Amino acid sequence: MRLRPCAALAAALACAEPAGANPSPNRQVVYKEPKGGDLRLHIFEPDGWRASDRRPAIVFFFGGGWVGGHPRQFYPHCRHLADLGMVAISAEYRTAKSHGTSPFACVEDGKSALRYLRQHAGELGVDPGRVAAAGGSAGGHVAACTGTVSGFETGDRAISSAPQAMVLFNPVCDTSPEGYGAARLGGRWREISPRHHISDKTPPACIFHGSADTAVPHENAAGFRAAMTDAGRRCELHTYRGAKHGFFNHGRGGNRAYLDTLAKMDTFLASLGFIDRAAATGGGDSGGTPSPRR
Fold this sequence. Notes:
Structural class: alpha/beta
Oligomer: single chain
Shape: globular
Strand content: 15-25%
CATH superfamily: Alpha/Beta hydrolase fold, catalytic domain
Number of strands: 8
Radius of gyration: 17 Å
CATH topology: Rossmann fold
């Protein structure tokens, strides 16, 4: 099934467009100080936010093949979720260009960001029991690793770095030789391959992937969903027929896929108590492949 116009969906999603052409965070805070430059959280706060709040939170990680990228990629998503009452964050993390590091450092930084969020929940107005990890492509890999992979921890390990939910946009879920990126991992691919670390503790996941993705093939996500299903874990996979890598980004294709993935993300988060069901924009008929909810 392909994307089809839907007047009702268009009306429901009118509020999903970010305020202004270029939404910007309310503030930035340093969460880690590695060699080569500090790492910051770009924080979007809802109206009426107070440090004493206990709001659900989500941390997005940008894409870029573990080589580059910028938190601006997910500013529109953050502004949208902040408008629905969440503390929404787009995080910096080390890449080959910014710090000369490997994908293993990316995973470590993703865990550090979630740990910092919980450790400073009382200052950030966040509920440590409702934290989601999200991201696209290599950033989707970072987010998926926070919910699956052991190790790569720094800081106070008494504070969890694991999310309660994952929202993944054409993510790298399999770094095996049959997946993506194994050549860059020097034989250590299994250490950070989310598909190979699914357990009975893996949090619910919502995945968006294009069937025509040649950068990270659709099988990467389909295999992850199959493994999640086998483990009895909830995993939604929404497949967009004919869509290529990065199809979900704001500004692509008249924002049709952006708005549709936003709506399905809202529905997923609402089902887990992250946002009010009445505030969720709801999903249109986009060709998202149904998947078991367990």
